[in-house]
Amino acid sequence: MGLENIKHVVLVLSGKGGVGKSSVTLQLALSLSQQGHNVGILDIDLTGPSIPRLLGLEEKKVTQAPGGWLPVKVHDAKDADDGNVPRRGSLHALSLAFLLPSRSSGVIWRGPKKTAMIRQFVSDVLWPPNTDYLLIDTPPGTSDEHIAIVEELHKLAADVHPSSPSNGNGLHLEIDNGPKLSGAVVVTTPQAIATADVRKELNFCVKTQVPVLGVIENMAGYMCPCCGEISNVFSKGGGQIMAGEANVPFLGSVPIDTGFGALVEGAKAESGTANGDVTTNGHTSTGHGHELVERYRTCGLYPIFSEFATTINQKVQDTATS
Which BP terms from GO are recorded (predicted)? Predict the structure, then answer.
C-alpha cells in the first residue's frame, strides 16, 4: 500500500535553505517526463511547501478516494507521434499545501505530528500505476522530516518477516517488497557558507545509508535571457570542490536564469510579448494555453537538466541491475 506503484525513489536534499531544492526537483521531474518516464513529486517541506506555486497549481486540492489520497495531476502521458517528438511521461504531485485551506495557512507543528504526516504521505497516497520515479522535495537540514522519510523508505524497501527464510543463524532474511530508494541528489550553491552546511547533509546520507547520486551546484553564474551567455558574476566551483573532497559524483553547475522564474510563474518577462509569452535563451514560448512541460523545452536550463536526468536515470538503472 502507498508506494507500491513506484519503481524508484530519489530524495532531493540540502543542508542549506534557499539553494533551490524545489526548482531543481521540478526541473528534474519535467526533464525525466520529457524522456518518457512517469514521474511523481512528493513535497515534504511541511512548513514551507513550494511545489504547488512552482507548478501554478496552488488552487488545486487533493482528492480522497477509497484507499487513500489521489495526487494532483500536472500533465498526462503522451504517446510519440510520427515526427521527432518522443513519448512523454506523466507527472503528478502531492504537497501539504494541497490539503490546507489557503496559501496563507500556517503549519505550526511539533516533531511527532510532522513524522505522522510523513508516514501518511508514504502509506496513504495512491500514485498512478507504473510510476517510474518519485522525487521527494525535502526541507533544509537533517531533522524530523528527513529522518522520518528515510526510515519509512528503508522499511518499505526491505521488511523483515518472521515467516521469511532463515539465514541459518536464527535471523530471518529480508524480503524486497517495496520501491527502491535509489539515492539522493544534493543541492548546494557555490559559496563556502552553503557548502559547509551541505557537507552535513552528505554525512547524513552516509549515516542513513542513502547513496548520493550526485551534487548539483545551483545559482552558479548568470544566464542572459536574450542570448543564453553565462557570466560568472558570482562565485563558482564550490560545489564541485566539495563533491571531490567528499568523493561523491558531481553532476554539474546551474546558472541563474530569470526566464525560468518567469516561465513557472506564468509571468511576462521583460523581453516577452502579450498573453504571458516568455523569452529565454533567445526563444519565445507562449505562456497562454500551453502545458508547463512543453514550455519548459524552450527554457535555457532545459539542456542542462536533461543531461542531469539522463545521468541520474543511468546511475539508477545500473544500480538496479547490479
Answer: iron-sulfur cluster assembly
What domain range is 27 assigned to? 6-161+174-216+233-255
Pull the grid cell for residue 245: 573532497
- Residue 135: which residues within 8 A CB-CB, separation 6 or more? 10, 12, 25, 28, 29, 32, 39, 40, 41, 42
d(Cα 128, Cα 122) in Å, to the nearest integer? Answer: 14
* pLDDT score, position 178: 58
In a 3-state reduction of DSSP, which class is residue 262?
A: helix
Binding-site positions for ATP read 15-22
> Which grid cell is 58?
496552488
- Which is nearest to 182 in space by CA: 6, 5, 8? 8
Q: Could you tell me if residue 151 is inside a domain?
A: yes
In a domain, 312, yes or no: no
Grid coordinates representing 63 are 482528492
- Over residues 252-271, mean pLDDT: 74
DSSP letters along 215-238, please? EEE-S-SEE-TTT--EE--S---H
The 10s digit of each residue's pLDDT in 142-180 is: 889 999 999 999 988 766 444 444 444 444 334 445 577
Between CA 98 and CA 82 the distance in angstroms is 37
The total number of structural domains in the chain stands at: 1
For 143, which DSSP code? S
What is the reported pTM? 0.87
Annotated binding site: 15-22, 224, 227
Query: CB of 130 within 8 A of CB of 8?
Result: no
What beta strand segments (E) does 66-200 contain? 68-70, 72-75, 91-95, 131-137, 159-160, 174-175, 180-188
Neighbouring-strand partners of residue 63: 70
Which residues carry a binding-site annotation for [4Fe-4S] cluster? 224, 227
Q: What is the CATH number of the domain that holds 134?
A: 3.40.50.300
